[in-house]
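Hi support team,

I'm filing this because I wasn't sure whether my run with S-adenosylmethionine finished correctly. The job status page said complete, but I'd like someone to confirm that the output block is well-formed before I use it downstream. Pasting the exact inputs I used:
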Amino acid sequence: MWRATVLTLFPEMFPGPLGLSLSGDALSRGVWELETRQIREHGLGRHRAVDDTPAGGGPGMVMRADVLAAAIDAAALDDERPRLLMSPRGTPLTQARIRQLVAGGGAIVVCGRFEGVDQRVIEARALEEVSIGDYVLSGGEIAALALIDACVRLLPGVMGEEASGHEESFEATLLEYPHYTRPRDFEGRVIPDVLLCGDHAKIAQWRHEQALRLTRERRPDLLAADRKTRD
Ligand code: SAM
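And here is everything the job wrote out:
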C-alpha cells in the first residue's frame, strides 16, 4: 500500500482536503495510508522547544537539527521511502517526480516552519528538498498536501477513468487543450463546431493544435526542454 508519513508541527492540518473527494474515498478504502508525526514530541525542555535563534543573527527562528533528526529517526529509521523536505529553495516538483514517488511505494514528508531548517539535518538525514513553486508559504504543510494529492490521484483505483491521468498537462510535453460541456451557447460563446462533428480524428487534431498553441503562448520553456531532450 502507498504510504505517506508527514512530520509536522500541525498534524491537525491532515488529512484536511485529502480526506475529501477521490483521495478521501481512497483513504477510507485503504488504497493509501496517511500517518502524521508531531515533531514537537521530540522537542526540548518543559516547553518542548523545536526552534532556536539563527546562528550568525538575523530575523526569525530556525528548526533545530537535533529535534528534527530525532523525529525523523523515530518515524522512519530503516525506511526505504524517499525523505522529502518541503522547501522553497528545493528542486521544483514535476509530474515526472510525482510518478516516481507513486511507483516508489510512498514518501516521508517533512514540513518546515519558521525561517527554515538547520542545514545539518538536511545533510545528515539525506533530505531531498522539494519546492512546489517560486513563492513562499508560511509552512510546509500546504506544500505537502499538494504533493500527496498529486501522488494519490495516480494510484490505481483512485481516479474514475484511468485514462484521464495520462492526457493531462505535463504528462506529455504539452499543456492540456481547452474543455467544453453543455450548454452549447453560454452568454453568446459557443462550443467550437469541430467538437460536435463526431469525427474523432478531426477532434484529436484540433485538440493537439490547441494544446500546442497554449503551450507556445504560456510555457515556451516546456517546448524548449522537449527539443533539448530529443536532440
Ligand atoms: N526563509 C525561507 C526562505 O526564504 O527560503 C522560507 C521559510 S517558509 C516561511 C517556512 C517553510 O514553509 C519552509 O521551511 C518550507 O517547509 C515551507 N515552504 C514555503 N514555501 C514553500 C514552497 N514554495 N515549496 C515547498 N515548501 C515551502
